Amino acid sequence: MLTFKNIDPTTREIAFGPHAQHVPYDGVAERILSQGQSFTITLNQTGNFQWHDHVHDDLTGTFTVNK
Questions:
Q1: What's the domain count of the chain?
Q2: What is the pTM of this model?
């Protein structure tokens, strides 16, 4: 499992895939997180994946899932 938690006062809109093309992962295409909120996905697809803050596109990341 992978947990995203917003620890700063800026509301975040976490989305998967490239900025212009959201690609759902574990059934989640995007999720809005206020300060202190979190959500968890189950790492059930193998490969390399991108995520980003849809509103503040300077916040991005990747994760890799191996078998």
A1: 1
A2: 0.87
